[in-house]
């Protein structure tokens, strides 16, 4: 009896297990009808992963999962068998950068440079102070199945996505969901799968941040605040945003950088706080693939290649930059560049205007060097692994979700037709036509007349004809199982007919009508054993497109280098040398450069290993140094939102590809001090750079130079032009009070000792008080100049440099006593109320008082002729030529604390030199060679060759774009290539004109 009970008990337990597995928290408003959903796909070529392909294999699925896969996998008795002979089965694709099923809130316009300010978040609840930090957002809580969007993605092979709300700088968490039409509960595989970030404030209506450097500073400060919040300080109360930020740090960290330089900026933030981001790329990384590889990051790479522009009209073409045309040609090489550099990456549909172009663009990438194996891996295994989901998706293995594609041919072939996309064991029919290979010969009987019908072409794209003495073309249309044929017999028009019917395996049948209106019946039977017939005329191997072999240049424009210039020993012979030292001007003398330094100065120097440059009749000077510049910055040169933004850093937003770097090299400039703008009382931290054209942002920075910061006084700070701004201060006396308050808070902050909340804003001010950071201050009016010095002296520091300083001649004695330098304009006046008292003798009078004076540009164009600006003091006063030249060389070097390295021609200093065709103060002087660290970055003769090359390359690419249009490719209108230009007083974020200048997002085009 006991032996009889055992099988019964086992069976009962199995039955209970099945019932437990079938349990659901949702009630059924019907008769319960649970199904096993068992299918066996036989005779298929199964690509289980990027490395493994099984021939004539079987895939078995049950209850939405893979039960078995292999060449010898058994077919269960209860399985629905699907014959996949001649077909391929692949894992469905995974997109790990999507907003599927979420909607980003729309930003409501308001506030800004001239409008009322919103200083704090208006989000209701116990959240953080800034609306752009949205760490508490969970995609899982807002996700809703969107079948229309899912259908688009399923059609191109995707079955799973990582979705998140693309809004803000810290965007909260992403969820992994399938593209099934199930309820959200069933479609969601992982509710918290990633933490997401960007440099875009998104829908936030709050003023701060208004710039890229502000976004970076906010993210850095948020890291510090979150670390501090771990202690649960009583004074902070509850901050759900900071707590969520902390909680999310254990997840994969994904950063939407969307540009090669932003990739590096994001990685730098991550390195600072010990985070390795997965970086969403921009598509232009091939231009700096070495720097990209050095991040050690994994990447998510888009395939949103630019369209050819319609440049047939020469008037349109001239406004399109060479770099944009080159990027059109070379963008499809980007994925291959990642593979070649051995960088781990996934692919994404993000950025595509039309989702259905994804596979076509992927084929372009494969044609340009991306391997099919890597392409498949980047769409399956790599995203699944990065998200910690490879145990569920990403390959076809026992126990994983039944997410797979059935395709007519290898999936990346241009002939491939995706018939079905199975997701969680459910079939999504994409295309029925072609599932059965109908090609071959048929016996076609129309009433009692027999014909031979031949079906040719490619699978899914058949063509037909009646074979006989007079071969007749058949207009064939097949949709699902329905067929329609129109036959027009040439010699026997009475039998011409329109037929329609149904396909049932190898037998077709139906009815029709002759041209005479008589009803007919017909049947077509495939000849047994007939192999597929192909149309050889149409099946010729397509010619592969020519691989793009254009070289990448550094920077990526017409004036870039195919290989970066190298340091070499140089001997400049027989030049007139302006030393800026006690030796004065030396006639017919030599300078020897070794290892980037000035090795010797004198007559009749020799060095067998040195390159000889004949300086006969030419003048050699130290490189020009621009103390006040706004070139080479991107994303806004002003963080205009708050009165004190000392936490932002120009060094975070250096743009190495700003053509002004090259143009200023052509004017003899070797170093530029890149300043924050003048929107606020205490602006951002500055960055001194050397104009090493072609280098990356970090390599441009002047190593070992003292850190500076930008202050401002006057009309810009108090917003004299604004009628509605509510940002403090509104008056000049308010500006003084902002300074006093800021340094009072910094002094108290420093006194707090260890354990305090680290504040990047106050850290910079403490550095000033401790004489570790130095001020360059935008100034005009004598009263404000005096008040700024008074505040500085109260807190025990000095204003290092007053820039603009057009009323400096009125308070030169006070500036001398304070120890300030002056960096001014040569002869600007009356362009606004603050400068009506400006005079061209200002620089000379301050110098006579004993102040170290420089002439600066504050303008990308003026910097190219700073030598001429300096010469104006010789015109207006009795200043000597040597003293005038020092105002753009040695004097700015002194005020920037780098005079021991540059600014004069002296043994041991950096070889930052300019070889002029004439006296450097002459309007006829041209910089023939500009040398930085012993490297010739500008050569007037090579520049001529570059210009010729630019013209030829533009012509080639224009013709290629015209050819693409004539070849049937989609084109976009010719779009002028705008170059961002920064102005001191302008707000990047609001993009409005100011004092007649064009806003910095819509400036003159640059066709180089």
Indicate the topology:
Elements: H1 2-21, E1 39-49, E2 52-62, E3 65-70, E4 80-83, E5 88-91, E6 93-98, H2 139-142, H3 147-155, E7 158-163, E8 170-178, H4 184-187, E9 188-198, H5 212-229, H6 240-247, E10 253-256, H7 260-272, E11 278-280, H8 289-293, E12 299-302, E13 308-310, H9 314-317, H10 322-330, H11 334-340, E14 345-348, H12 358-367, H13 372-379, H14 381-386, E15 404-407, E16 418-423, E17 426-429, E18 440-446, E19 449-458, E20 461-467, E21 472-479, E22 482-487, E23 497-504, E24 507-514, E25 519-526, E26 570-578, E27 585-594, E28 597-602, E29 611-614, E30 619-622, E31 624-629, H15 659-665, E32 669-674, E33 682-685, E34 687-690, H16 697-700, E35 708-712, H17 715-718, H18 732-751, H19 760-769, E36 774-779, H20 782-794, E37 801-804, H21 812-818, E38 821-824, H22 842-848, E39 853-855, H23 866-876, H24 881-886, H25 890-895, E40 913-916, E41 927-932, E42 935-939, H26 940-966, E43 971-973
